[in-house]
Design brief:
Distance between the termini: 48 Å
Strand order of the largest sheet: 2-8-9-10-16-12-13
Strand content: 15-25%
Number of strands: 25
Oligomer: single chain
Shape: globular
Number of helices: 15
Structural class: alpha+beta
Bound molecules: beta-L-arabinofuranose, zinc ion
Radius of gyration: 25 Å
Number of domains: 4
Length: 635
Amino acid sequence: MMPIREITMRNVKITDAFWAPRQTLITDVTLPYMEKILRDEMPGAEESHALSNLRIAAGEEAGEYRGMVFQDSDVAKWLEAAAYSLALKQDEALSGRVDEIVALIGRCQQKDGYLNTYFTVKEPENRWNNLLECHELYCAGHMIEAGVALHEAAGKDELLNICIRLADHICDRFEKDEGIPGHQEIEIALLRLYRTTGNIRYLNMALRFLNLRGQDPDWFKKHTPRHPGIHYGGYDISPEEAVYNQSDVPVRDQTAARGHAVRQLYMLSAMADAAAETGDQKMLDACQRLFDNITQRQMYVTGAVGASAYHEAFTVDFDLPSDRCYGETCASVAMVFFANKMLKNRPNSRYADLMELELYNAALAGMQLDGKRFFYVNPLEVNISTSGRIPGYEHVLPQRPAWHACACCPPNLARLIASLGSYLWSEDDDTVYSHLFIGSEADTSRGRIRLETGYPWQGWVRYTILGNGPFTLTIRIPDYVRKYVLTVNGQSAAGSVRAGYCCIQRLWGAGDTVELTFDLPARRIHADPRVRDCAGKVALARGPVIYCFEETDQKEILSALSLPADAAITAVTHLKGLPEELIGLRAEGTSDLLPAAMYAREPLKTATCTLTAIPYFAWANREKGNMTVWIRESK
Ligand code: FUB
Ligand code: ZN
């Protein structure tokens, strides 16, 4: 099948009542906030030192390099998000500051194209010496993505030119070498750079990195110098640990997601993108196997992935502890990248379902409603007596911190939300695909199409065709929509359903409308009992939104609550202390009464109570308290 073409944010304007304000939050609040952090102008927040590192590397400031070895990537991801922000909204002042930072980056670049402040400042003699830990290719990848974004979204070429020199330097260094990145990312970037410049060298370099990976499972063991190097966050490498960065098996032979989640998912995004570029069926089959493994066996109901704090990693199938969950925000962002690249290979509603799940839940929960604080870890249960305090639970915080020593997640989420327009639509020669119900206007090769919707709270979507001509409008039907009514120009219609998309083929005229309406009842979700924490429990959802229970809304302790299997669940608004348009869920439940002693012979007595659930993305926006997604279900 022919790959489908992305319709990028340049041709899509988001008008959605839910997402447009969130994009404004990113442009008006989050990016300025992050910039202050990068400039170390935010009192009380974890120091970044990222811009100082650049000035020190350029010889314009005295002092020591500080921060993670990949601190440059925070600046790169911020620049990428700023590029999208400039496409969303003209901002002369931001544009000027972006230019200044890019010029500073240019002054850090070495004559041969090398660009990395850590090694320029601290260990110039060790460049490219420790690919396992040192993130030079990872930082380069993020910088290249920023360069491409500034070129494409903001019409700025200076960083792109810097990155072309950097990419040429990387190709010179690695085209005939067996080196592979310790943290995959450069592959995504080189593919983007290839499409932007048309230079096949970058495609070949990306493919080479993918093809070499796992050919020698001991490659890192053989080629990683023994540094005293605590500063790399290094760990002892044993042959077994090749699984940590997926270098244990050639990429086409991988069967299940294992090891560091972000590395795994960046690699899968690049593989899916490469498969779409080259038609490599084995590569695509591997992507599909891992997509199935992740979504059917290793993903939390919120879309969070990477269950274990140790190595920030996937572990084994069905190992999904709710309260020790890692679920890094970056991993959920990367799930959106991966699903989007799978869609480029073949339209199937499963990929768009996954993008939607991540966007409304695990990824979005990474950001506080005010756009200023961020979660790195996204648990499904928090107990404030243990979370963030007791060994094994240190990583699980009940509130979003002001900033992070390792700050990969906030700018990742910012670049995703700012570029959301690129994830909604795509097309091929005779079809326009609508993947997500997000209000927008898309300029397709078939003319403009307007999408209006009450999503995520109401089940209606209206398309208005603003061009003329024959084509198939192909609309994804979310997996939770069992029945819908379709009308074309107000008359009932029946499209054919293919791979989860409703296809309406017509000779369209300007002003034609297509409407889809469906109920959005609250629904219960039950887990496979092999997910031990969820056995006998239920989670609630409505449309794309997954719900959770916060202590502040209940009178009883969360672990005492049960929801009867037949309880009616009603939608409510005006949740205490939350924006009034958010829809919550309410039901009559029961609560176990506390027994006289810790262990009682008799069954516990119960009392009825009212249960209130709020959208998971909105948790931890009020006073600190316990939270759970899953509660017991009583018969
Ligand atoms: O190593 C760079 C980034 O830091 C990873 O992608 C995250 O998981 C965090 O470890
Ligand atoms: Zn992260």
